[in-house]
Amino acid sequence: MPKMVISDVPDEEYEGRRVFVRVDFNVPIRDGVISEDYRIRRAIPTIDYLIDKGARIILASHLGRPKGIFIPDLSLKPVSYRLSELLGKPVKFIGKVIGNEVKLEIEELQNGEVMLLENLRFHKEETDNDPNFAKELASLADIYVNDAFGTSHRKHASTYGMAFYFNLRLAGFLLNRELKFLTRIRENPEHPFVVIVGGAKIKDKIHALKNLLEKADKVLIGGGVAYTFLKAKGVGVGDSLTEDEMIGWAEEALKNYGDKILLPVDHVVAESIEKRKTYMIVDEEIPAGFKGFDIGPKTVRKYTSEIKGMGSIFWNGPMGVFEIEEFSVGTTHIARAIALATWRGATTVVGGGETISAIRKAEVLDSEIVHISTGGGALLEFLGGEELPGISILNDKVA
To answer: What's the pTM value of the predicted model, to 2 decimals?
Structure first.
């Protein structure tokens, strides 16, 4: 069922009213410096819209996993500075989440002003979905908006528990865009539909893989996932990372969808990451004592020939240990092939934190991908057909 979006509500609903917006500002910060602000930038359209309508905006997010403890390095204060720059106006930051001081600051907010609360996960009650904490959060606002797709698979206080206290429970523009493109990929992708799967583990992606295998025309497999499939096929993978508990499932997938599944035909291998300067390229089997760290050049040519400028393409997970230069070539070629397919007219959807980092390393621009999902676990659960609590709780759109 489509969800109500902030633009579905009459403008007068926002004027002077307190709007709580759950955003996803879980960005990398080191020594107070944000190294990647993509998730912050993606929330700007929703915030700008609410500013324009005269709302009093209260933003809330988590950062990292502090587990209920205040950790200075996980404060959202640096985010408030960056957000101020992006919005071109001050963003108030009080350094707390709940309490009288927060309420007093919110009372002083003027129409069109923005406040960012401190890291929600400094309170253990957030991840516990504590009812009292949820009620306290809800008391801060009149309207609830979820624009944090990446945390919508969690029944946390800010994504689920507090929403029950609002008549208006709306999707922000980013969340709505995620649902639009991911629903299309999950339910009715344009064909030819090519799925590219990498990363370390099948286990994390199994429900999504099951669903996508049925719909895909081709499934290109790389990363650690490939070595489990190759082992299931009886191909020697040396000392490469495999998930032995998933071999039975991989055998079944190859039996049922073997005509769709493409596996690496050559590999970039080394004894270890530490000994990577002596890496080599091997065909088919990986010798004992060596580990696969990237797809080889023959596989790159084979895979990129399948990534064309038509239909739909979905990519989750790098082809190798892309953070290290010697093992980044396969992932970089895939990223650039997807960018080219976008320009040629394909609907390209990419998701997962590592995959977004890989796009950056490959110097592919945001505009060269039709949709970059901010979700990780939420993305895979949604594509696997599971209901996400943070989305199900929102108001259904009335026909």
So the answer is: 0.91
